[in-house]
Amino acid sequence: MRTSYDIIIRPIVTENSMLQTSDRKYTFEVLKEANKTQIKKAVEEVFGVKVENVNTLNVKGKLKRQGRTQGYTRSWKKAIVKLTADSKTIEFFEGM
Length: 96
Known about the structure:
Elements: H1 4-7, E1 8-11, H2 15-19, E2 25-30, H3 36-47, E3 51-59, E4 63-66, E5 69-72, E6 76-83
Antiparallel strand pairs: 1-2, 2-6, 3-6, 4-5
């Protein structure tokens, strides 16, 4: 069985994701096999917040070349989590 810490791999800290924090949306890289319900429970348990909804995207690996050899970077899953209006914010993103 997967724990909440196994489902959430890392937060995504980019310029676009930091602009979304004002709308109470936070972006995470999550386990590829996790569904929206599991992601919602994991974020609520780890950060102690209330989640309104979860949007997920499957990010396809990009083609990379080095000399004559080529291959793909790994594919991964992105989750954009929106918090409820009465929930507290996630403190990890506050200092960014």
